[in-house]
Predict the structure of 2OG-Fe(II) oxygenase.
Amino acid sequence: MMTSMNQGASSPMGARPASDLSMTIAPDLVTETLAQFNPDARVTVHYVGTEKTPVIVIDDLLAYPEAMVELACQPTEFVENRQDFYPGKRKTAPHAYSEQLKRQYADLIRSHYQIEPTTQPNCLLSAFSLTMTQPQYLRPIQMLPHFDSPLSEQFAVVHYLFRGPQGGTSLYRHRKTGFETVTHSRIAQYGKTLKQQAYGMHLHQSPAYTNGSGPLFEQIHTVEAKFNRAVLYPSNCLHSADISSTAKLPDDPRTGRLTLNTFLLFQHENT
């Protein structure tokens, strides 16, 4: 099932061309203008799987997406954090981006996920992310669909800032348990079951990114990557990037699988 809507009046132009802004950008001059969201962004809502989880796709999210790519190419360097299991490197995105994201889309999130109107979105992470780990160097946990948090009030936003065929994002169902989301009430059962299964799979012997259905997980929905498209889904959804065995994963933000990833948690202000 799918519904569509526009954030503003429809426009055949979509996002504004990068030539509208200078491509020489100093990080300390980043303003809300650079991170300006497109008022004519197109929103589509898909209801996924047997759990009918809403997945929100936003096309032409930024008014100046090329400028954001150029910003990602400026110093400082991308860095790896092996504690979060992301198969690549990240660097912090401008604060103005997450602020506009919250301002523009908080009400849309509340309406589709039954989030209490008295809660406010807090940004846990907003970072340029460059997937660059080659398959042979993946750890077993990076070879399977995963969830980011069991919290029903936390959401992930993946904003595609690349044009190459490096893959979008898919959601999955765990075959053994039937789980499409992993909540607090499910996490013990899911963890125990998956651990037993993974040991028997000997994943380290044939390292590869998840890309489609397999023995443990069924692919239930795919969002194709498109430049300046964002996908938003609950952080407790089982998901994975779609990266084929032949995908090139360069370490250059201009040509690699560059995304801008944000986590939003809705909380009461005194929490």
